[in-house]
């Protein structure tokens, strides 16, 4: 019986390694030729999700972070849609609380036993202050992954802050793969 469990563990580990290799190859392709158009990107992320599910994998990492996701000033959430599909592809659970939430609403929705990090998009540069206010409101051990055009000029993050500026979906996936949360 113990031998069967060891064999199953080895098969699952090889399956997981194969999936990780597929994801890394996709990232390399996007690094070389650029991230594809939105619709192609969404289809490729769905393809990775289908591959993960067909391999019987729950997640790309053993203990996946659980994200709370929202936007500060984005009423469309197009970037967040991509991040949600990336989470689905990798098997990263998330709770979406809606669009255009205030730092206080986000903090009220955060639950320590349910969420390990907050994923947020920022469209307007004048919303950076809201993001920094959110950082002050949330527990210091909780990472904030923030992306969007409103952050393109935000070069300095106060030392010791768990605020990660995510450049694009490739960068987001690499953060997950490297377990940087």
Termini separation comes to: 37 Å
The radius of gyration computed from the alpha-carbon positions, rounded to a whole number of angstroms, is 17 Å
Q: Structural class, from helix and strand content?
A: alpha/beta
Counting DSSP H or I runs of 4 or more residues, the number of helices is 6
Point out poorly predicted stretches: none
Based on DSSP secondary structure assignment, what is the total number of beta strands? 5
- The shape is globular
The major sheet is characterized as: 5 strands, parallel
Instruction: Give the overall average pLDDT.
Output: 89
Q: Numbering strands along the chain, what is their spatial order in the largest sheet? A: 2-1-3-4-5
N-to-C SSE series? HHEHEHEHEEH
- Oligomer category: single chain
What is the percent of helical residues? 40-55%
Residues in β-strands, percent: 5-15%
What can be said about this structure in brief?
The chain contains 6 helices and 5 strands, in the order ααβαβαβαββα. It has 181 residues and is an alpha/beta fold.
Keywords:
181 residues; alpha/beta; five-stranded parallel sheet; globular
Q: Any overview of this molecule?
A:
This protein has 181 residues and is α/β, with parallel strands linked by helices. 49% of the residues lie in helices and 12% in strands. The protein has helices at 2-33, 38-54, 78-90, 103-109, 128-137, 169-177; strands at 67-71, 94-96, 117-121, 143-147, 163-166. Helix 3 (78-90) links the parallel strand 1 (67-71) and strand 2 (94-96). Helix 2 runs parallel beside helix 3. It is globular and about 45 Å long. The mean pLDDT is 89.
